[in-house]
Amino acid sequence: MDQQQIPKMAAVGILGFLGIMLLMSSYFVIDAGERGIILRFGSVNRVVTDGLHFKVPFMEDIIRMTVRVQKTTTKTEAASQDLQIVQTTMVLNYSLQPDKVGEVYKTLGTNRDVSEKIINPSIEESFKAAAARYTAEELISKREALKTQVRNYLRDRLAPFGILVVELSITDFQF
């Protein structure tokens, strides 16, 4: 082997390796129950469903957001109609509307941001509004009606943000 061919072969090997790495970084997989938000230079370019997809290397990044049912737990307190202070723990099961994931990311951010910015404050507000209609005794005896009122309010409040309310549970009352 000629000594002059060694640097050429090394250069070809390095370029081949870099080409393979560039090709491999062009493809990505989105898991079932997720949506991939493709950001091109930080701006939402498109949203893709689960499966194998292509992206432009060095120009596009992928943000994965789950559209599966998620759970958030919120502790809140409110005053009943007879001015009794009520503390409760509420558990909300929700999911993001798959066709609105891009807008959710633009306006609210990632899955964690959605819970902190919109869902927890909405739960607190809806419980305070509903609890004020009942006496302390009625909060216990009409628990199902209270739950229905809070759930309906949350559905109306969260729908414009692309959030679907799956179920709401009131897990604890303390007076």
Task: Kindly summarize this structure in a few lines.
With 175 residues, the protein is an alpha+beta fold.
Textual characterization of the structure:
With 175 residues, this protein is of the alpha+beta class. The chain is 40% helix and 35% strand. It is built from 5 helices and 8 strands; from the N terminus they run H-E-E-E-E-E-E-E-H-H-H-H-E. Strand 6 and strand 7 form a beta hairpin.
Helix content: 40-55%
Radius of gyration: 25 Å
For the biggest β-sheet, the strand order reads 3-2-5
The count of β-strands is 8
List keywords for this structure.
175 residues; alpha+beta; three-stranded antiparallel β-sheet; 5 helices
Strand and helix layout:
Layout lengths: L4 H20 L2 E4 L3 E7 L2 E6 L2 E4 L5 E7 L3 E10 L5 E12 L4 H7 L3 H21 L4 H6 L1 H16 L4 E12 L1
Helix pairs in contact: 3-5
